Amino acid sequence: MKIFISFDMEGVAGIVDWSQCTAPGQPYEEGRALLLGEVNAAIDGALAGGATQIVCNDSHGKMNNLNPADLHGRATYIAGRHKPLYMMEGMDESVDAVFFVGYHGSISGESSVLSHTYNPSVVSKVELNGIECGESGINALVALGCRAPVALITGDQQTITQGGPFFKDAERVVVKDSITRFAASQLHPFDAREKIAAAAERAVRRAAALTLPGIALPATLDVHLQTADMAQVAGWVKGVERIGTRTIRAEGDDPLAVFRSFVGVTYITRVAEGR
Ligand SMILES: [Zn+2]
Hints:
The protein has 275 residues and is an alpha/beta fold. Helix content is 30%, strand content 24%. It has six helices and twelve strands. The protein has helices at 26-49, 135-145, 157-163, 189-206, 228-234, 255-269; strands at residues 2-7, 53-58, 76-78, 97-103, 123-128, 131-132, 150-156, 171-180, 183-186, 219-225, 240-242, 247-252. It has a seven-stranded mixed beta sheet with strand order 3-2-1-4-7-8-9, with helices on both faces. It has a five-stranded antiparallel beta sheet with strand order 6-5-10-12-11. Helix 2 (135-145) packs across helix 6. The radius of gyration is 17 Å and the shape is globular. It binds zinc ion. The site of zinc ion has 4 residues, from loops. The site of zinc ion (ZN) has 4 residues, from loops.
Protein backbone atom coordinates (compact mmCIF):
# COMPACT_ATOMS: atom_id res chain seq x y z
CA MET A 1 0.00 0.00 0.00
CA LYS A 2 1.81 3.07 -1.30
CA ILE A 3 0.67 6.53 -0.26
CA PHE A 4 1.61 9.75 -2.03
CA ILE A 5 1.39 12.89 0.10
CA SER A 6 1.42 16.27 -1.61
CA PHE A 7 1.73 18.81 1.18
CA ASP A 8 1.35 22.56 1.10
CA MET A 9 1.67 24.94 4.04
CA GLU A 10 -0.98 27.67 4.04
CA GLY A 11 -3.71 25.28 5.17
CA VAL A 12 -1.91 24.09 8.31
CA ALA A 13 -3.46 24.87 11.71
CA GLY A 14 -1.62 27.82 13.28
CA ILE A 15 -0.63 29.46 9.99
CA VAL A 16 -2.27 32.75 9.01
CA ASP A 17 0.56 34.90 7.62
CA TRP A 18 3.11 34.76 4.82
CA SER A 19 5.92 35.32 7.35
CA GLN A 20 5.16 31.84 8.68
CA CYS A 21 5.48 30.37 5.18
CA THR A 22 8.55 32.18 3.87
CA ALA A 23 12.17 31.63 4.98
CA PRO A 24 14.06 32.91 6.85
CA GLY A 25 12.93 34.04 10.29
CA GLN A 26 11.41 32.94 13.57
CA PRO A 27 7.80 32.93 12.27
CA TYR A 28 8.92 30.61 9.45
CA GLU A 29 10.65 28.31 11.92
CA GLU A 30 7.36 28.08 13.83
CA GLY A 31 5.45 27.54 10.60
CA ARG A 32 7.64 24.69 9.40
CA ALA A 33 7.36 23.00 12.80
CA LEU A 34 3.56 23.20 12.51
CA LEU A 35 3.77 21.80 8.97
CA LEU A 36 6.00 18.92 10.06
CA GLY A 37 3.52 18.04 12.79
CA GLU A 38 0.65 17.68 10.33
CA VAL A 39 2.68 15.77 7.71
CA ASN A 40 3.89 13.35 10.37
CA ALA A 41 0.34 12.94 11.67
CA ALA A 42 -0.74 11.94 8.16
CA ILE A 43 2.17 9.49 7.93
CA ASP A 44 1.45 8.00 11.36
CA GLY A 45 -2.20 7.51 10.48
CA ALA A 46 -1.36 6.00 7.11
CA LEU A 47 1.00 3.50 8.72
CA ALA A 48 -1.63 2.59 11.31
CA GLY A 49 -4.06 1.95 8.47
CA GLY A 50 -1.68 -0.43 6.69
CA ALA A 51 0.46 1.74 4.42
CA THR A 52 3.84 0.22 3.65
CA GLN A 53 5.43 2.97 1.56
CA ILE A 54 5.07 6.74 1.83
CA VAL A 55 6.26 9.33 -0.66
CA CYS A 56 6.06 12.99 0.44
CA ASN A 57 6.26 15.77 -2.13
CA ASP A 58 7.00 19.20 -0.69
CA SER A 59 4.71 21.50 -2.69
CA HIS A 60 5.19 24.82 -0.96
CA GLY A 61 7.36 27.76 -2.01
CA LYS A 62 10.89 26.62 -2.68
CA MET A 63 9.62 23.14 -1.80
CA ASN A 64 12.32 22.42 0.73
CA ASN A 65 10.61 23.17 4.02
CA LEU A 66 11.36 20.12 6.17
CA ASN A 67 14.36 18.36 7.63
CA PRO A 68 14.18 14.98 5.84
CA ALA A 69 15.39 13.12 8.94
CA ASP A 70 12.38 14.41 10.90
CA LEU A 71 9.86 12.66 8.64
CA HIS A 72 8.22 9.63 10.19
CA GLY A 73 7.83 6.27 8.51
CA ARG A 74 11.13 6.42 6.63
CA ALA A 75 9.17 8.41 4.08
CA THR A 76 10.76 9.36 0.80
CA TYR A 77 11.07 13.15 0.62
CA ILE A 78 10.82 14.84 -2.76
CA ALA A 79 12.15 18.34 -2.26
CA GLY A 80 13.40 21.25 -4.29
CA ARG A 81 12.21 23.57 -7.01
CA HIS A 82 11.41 23.06 -10.68
CA LYS A 83 9.78 19.68 -10.70
CA PRO A 84 8.07 18.60 -13.94
CA LEU A 85 4.91 17.49 -12.14
CA TYR A 86 5.21 20.36 -9.66
CA MET A 87 2.87 19.74 -6.68
CA MET A 88 2.35 16.16 -7.91
CA GLU A 89 5.97 15.18 -8.60
CA GLY A 90 6.47 11.57 -7.60
CA MET A 91 3.03 10.41 -8.69
CA ASP A 92 2.87 7.33 -10.86
CA GLU A 93 0.69 4.27 -11.35
CA SER A 94 2.26 2.45 -8.40
CA VAL A 95 0.52 4.82 -5.94
CA ASP A 96 -2.59 3.41 -4.23
CA ALA A 97 -3.94 6.59 -2.65
CA VAL A 98 -3.23 10.32 -2.64
CA PHE A 99 -3.27 12.67 0.35
CA PHE A 100 -3.47 16.48 0.12
CA VAL A 101 -2.22 17.94 3.43
CA GLY A 102 -2.11 21.62 4.41
CA TYR A 103 -3.97 22.72 1.27
CA HIS A 104 -5.55 26.18 0.97
CA GLY A 105 -8.39 27.96 -0.82
CA SER A 106 -8.40 29.14 -4.43
CA ILE A 107 -7.71 32.73 -5.45
CA SER A 108 -11.24 33.17 -6.82
CA GLY A 109 -13.16 31.63 -3.91
CA GLU A 110 -14.48 32.82 -0.55
CA SER A 111 -12.01 34.25 1.97
CA SER A 112 -9.45 31.60 2.82
CA VAL A 113 -6.15 32.04 4.64
CA LEU A 114 -3.38 32.96 2.17
CA SER A 115 -5.55 31.85 -0.74
CA HIS A 116 -4.06 31.58 -4.21
CA THR A 117 -4.01 29.20 -7.15
CA TYR A 118 -0.43 28.30 -8.02
CA ASN A 119 0.93 31.77 -8.83
CA PRO A 120 -1.05 34.66 -7.28
CA SER A 121 0.66 37.16 -9.62
CA VAL A 122 -0.62 35.28 -12.66
CA VAL A 123 -3.76 33.20 -12.04
CA SER A 124 -7.05 34.88 -11.12
CA LYS A 125 -9.43 31.93 -11.52
CA VAL A 126 -9.43 28.32 -12.69
CA GLU A 127 -12.41 26.23 -13.78
CA LEU A 128 -12.28 22.48 -14.28
CA ASN A 129 -15.14 21.23 -16.44
CA GLY A 130 -16.89 24.50 -15.71
CA ILE A 131 -16.54 24.21 -11.92
CA GLU A 132 -14.39 26.74 -10.07
CA CYS A 133 -11.50 24.93 -8.47
CA GLY A 134 -8.33 25.39 -6.49
CA GLU A 135 -5.06 23.54 -6.49
CA SER A 136 -6.69 20.34 -5.23
CA GLY A 137 -8.93 20.12 -8.30
CA ILE A 138 -6.08 20.83 -10.70
CA ASN A 139 -3.81 18.32 -8.98
CA ALA A 140 -6.55 15.71 -8.99
CA LEU A 141 -6.00 15.50 -12.76
CA VAL A 142 -2.73 13.72 -12.00
CA ALA A 143 -4.36 11.36 -9.51
CA LEU A 144 -6.93 10.49 -12.16
CA GLY A 145 -4.23 10.02 -14.80
CA CYS A 146 -2.41 7.60 -12.49
CA ARG A 147 -5.63 5.80 -11.52
CA ALA A 148 -5.41 6.63 -7.79
CA PRO A 149 -8.14 8.07 -5.54
CA VAL A 150 -7.69 11.23 -3.49
CA ALA A 151 -8.25 9.67 -0.07
CA LEU A 152 -7.56 12.58 2.31
CA ILE A 153 -7.62 16.36 2.15
CA THR A 154 -6.82 18.75 5.01
CA GLY A 155 -7.04 22.54 5.22
CA ASP A 156 -9.52 25.26 6.08
CA GLN A 157 -13.25 25.03 5.48
CA GLN A 158 -13.04 26.65 2.01
CA THR A 159 -10.41 24.19 0.85
CA ILE A 160 -12.60 21.30 1.84
CA THR A 161 -15.66 22.80 0.14
CA GLN A 162 -13.76 23.52 -3.08
CA GLY A 163 -12.44 19.96 -3.29
CA GLY A 164 -15.91 18.52 -2.74
CA PRO A 165 -17.04 18.22 -6.36
CA PHE A 166 -13.90 16.32 -7.40
CA PHE A 167 -13.42 13.74 -4.64
CA LYS A 168 -16.71 13.17 -2.95
CA ASP A 169 -15.72 10.25 -0.74
CA ALA A 170 -12.30 11.45 0.46
CA GLU A 171 -11.67 11.86 4.18
CA ARG A 172 -11.73 15.58 4.98
CA VAL A 173 -10.22 17.37 7.96
CA VAL A 174 -11.00 21.03 8.61
CA VAL A 175 -8.17 22.31 10.84
CA LYS A 176 -9.24 25.96 10.79
CA ASP A 177 -12.11 28.22 9.83
CA SER A 178 -10.86 31.14 7.76
CA ILE A 179 -12.28 34.53 8.70
CA THR A 180 -10.33 36.51 6.10
CA ARG A 181 -7.25 35.80 3.95
CA PHE A 182 -5.16 36.64 7.02
CA ALA A 183 -7.23 35.43 9.98
CA ALA A 184 -8.72 32.15 11.13
CA SER A 185 -10.20 30.37 14.09
CA GLN A 186 -7.96 27.36 14.47
CA LEU A 187 -7.81 24.00 16.17
CA HIS A 188 -4.96 23.56 18.59
CA PRO A 189 -2.16 21.94 16.58
CA PHE A 190 -2.30 18.80 18.73
CA ASP A 191 -6.03 18.43 18.02
CA ALA A 192 -5.46 19.03 14.31
CA ARG A 193 -2.81 16.32 14.28
CA GLU A 194 -5.06 13.84 16.08
CA LYS A 195 -7.84 14.43 13.58
CA ILE A 196 -5.47 14.14 10.62
CA ALA A 197 -3.95 10.90 11.92
CA ALA A 198 -7.38 9.36 12.50
CA ALA A 199 -8.60 10.43 9.05
CA ALA A 200 -5.42 9.17 7.38
CA GLU A 201 -5.87 5.77 9.01
CA ARG A 202 -9.49 5.59 7.81
CA ALA A 203 -8.41 6.77 4.36
CA VAL A 204 -5.91 3.96 3.93
CA ARG A 205 -8.36 1.35 5.21
CA ARG A 206 -10.96 2.63 2.72
CA ALA A 207 -8.53 3.27 -0.15
CA ALA A 208 -9.36 0.21 -2.23
CA ALA A 209 -13.07 1.12 -2.19
CA LEU A 210 -12.65 4.81 -3.00
CA THR A 211 -13.60 6.15 -6.40
CA LEU A 212 -11.21 7.92 -8.73
CA PRO A 213 -11.45 11.75 -8.91
CA GLY A 214 -14.79 12.79 -10.38
CA ILE A 215 -13.49 14.59 -13.44
CA ALA A 216 -15.34 13.73 -16.65
CA LEU A 217 -13.20 13.24 -19.74
CA PRO A 218 -12.38 14.98 -21.94
CA ALA A 219 -11.36 17.41 -19.20
CA THR A 220 -11.51 21.13 -19.83
CA LEU A 221 -9.28 23.38 -17.74
CA ASP A 222 -9.95 27.10 -18.19
CA VAL A 223 -7.34 29.38 -16.64
CA HIS A 224 -8.05 33.09 -16.24
CA LEU A 225 -4.86 35.13 -16.11
CA GLN A 226 -4.18 38.59 -14.75
CA THR A 227 -3.19 40.22 -18.04
CA ALA A 228 -3.56 39.77 -21.78
CA ASP A 229 0.23 39.59 -22.06
CA MET A 230 0.23 36.44 -19.98
CA ALA A 231 -2.60 34.89 -21.99
CA GLN A 232 -0.69 35.56 -25.19
CA VAL A 233 2.45 33.66 -24.18
CA ALA A 234 0.44 30.99 -22.36
CA GLY A 235 -1.31 30.26 -25.65
CA TRP A 236 2.00 29.10 -27.08
CA VAL A 237 2.22 26.18 -24.66
CA LYS A 238 1.52 22.73 -26.16
CA GLY A 239 -2.10 21.75 -25.70
CA VAL A 240 -3.21 25.28 -24.80
CA GLU A 241 -5.60 27.50 -26.71
CA ARG A 242 -6.27 31.17 -25.99
CA ILE A 243 -10.05 31.52 -25.78
CA GLY A 244 -10.35 35.08 -24.50
CA THR A 245 -8.41 38.24 -23.81
CA ARG A 246 -7.13 36.85 -20.51
CA THR A 247 -8.29 33.24 -20.65
CA ILE A 248 -6.61 30.08 -21.91
CA ARG A 249 -7.94 26.53 -22.18
CA ALA A 250 -6.26 23.13 -21.91
CA GLU A 251 -8.50 20.28 -22.94
CA GLY A 252 -8.25 16.60 -23.69
CA ASP A 253 -8.89 12.97 -22.89
CA ASP A 254 -5.54 12.57 -21.11
CA PRO A 255 -5.72 14.25 -17.69
CA LEU A 256 -1.94 14.09 -17.32
CA ALA A 257 -1.50 15.98 -20.59
CA VAL A 258 -3.96 18.65 -19.44
CA PHE A 259 -2.01 19.00 -16.19
CA ARG A 260 1.32 19.20 -18.04
CA SER A 261 -0.09 22.00 -20.19
CA PHE A 262 -1.11 23.81 -17.00
CA VAL A 263 2.38 23.41 -15.55
CA GLY A 264 3.81 24.79 -18.80
CA VAL A 265 1.51 27.80 -18.43
CA THR A 266 2.68 28.42 -14.87
CA TYR A 267 6.32 28.27 -15.91
CA ILE A 268 6.04 30.42 -19.03
CA THR A 269 3.94 33.11 -17.31
CA ARG A 270 6.32 33.34 -14.35
CA VAL A 271 8.48 35.71 -16.37
CA ALA A 272 5.57 37.78 -17.75
CA GLU A 273 6.17 40.58 -15.25
CA GLY A 274 3.17 40.09 -13.01
CA ARG A 275 0.73 42.94 -12.68
ZN1 LIG B 1 1.92 26.94 -0.52
